[in-house]
Amino acid sequence: MRIIKEHGERRTEIIDAAENLFAAKGYASTAISDILEALNIAKGTFYHYFVSKEALMDAVIERYIDAEMAVAQAVADDPKISAHEKMFRILTDAGRDNERGDRLEKEASAVGNADMHQRTMASIVLRLSPILEGVVRQGMREGTFNTAYPKECMEILLAASEFILHGSAFAWSSAERLQKARALAWMAEKVLGVEEGRFSYLYKRYEGDGGCCDQC
């Protein structure tokens, strides 16, 4: 008997199945027929929700970004912690599913689609920068941050981080990436008016050490 499901429920099932298959087989080795077989659905059902496998990968990534933004927003909304602590938790991915994120980033890179990478980076910058702007404004009220451009500073710093450090456009060596991360931390300290070393945790991960927030 054919089971009728709500539009949102069926779409979520397809995304779930795709993410599991991409993780198990890799994006390139997963065919649309694999997804159809896993869910026992017709090809027409798949194309009712997604125009292509690439569009489905977009949806998988966007859902992950949704979850990331929810975690960041929860940290930003916590009235019990300082702006510096919030910045540390958000920028060091505290409490996030990093293994899942690394896996999706790897599979997205395998797609070989520059436009997809650009859309992903733009989505992160546009959605995370307002959250961080709020944190910066809290820090300004607390007297720990000082900048005339809280919104623009966050947009520019995030864009630099996503494109230069996390993007696939440059084949940096480990030493070069570390140097870029050090420069980004230095710029963040300057534009936010904090003492040198405050954002050292931004490059500690590239030294093989996640750092700690002993300055917060």
From TrEMBL:
Domain HTH tetR-type per the UniProt entry, residue ranges: 8-68
Pfam families (UniProt xref): TetR_C_39, TetR_N
InterPro entries cross-referenced by the UniProt entry: Homeodomain-like_sf (IPR009057), HTH-type_Tx_Regulator (IPR050624), HTH_TetR (IPR001647), TetR/AcrR_C (IPR049149)
Residue spans crossing the bilayer: none
Keyword tags: DNA-binding
Sample GO molecular function, one term: DNA binding
PANTHER family noted in UniProt: ACREF/ENVCD OPERON REPRESSOR-RELATED, ACREF_ENVCD OPERON REPRESSOR-RELATED
Protein name from the UniProt record: HTH tetR-type domain-containing protein
Annotated source species: bioreactor metagenome
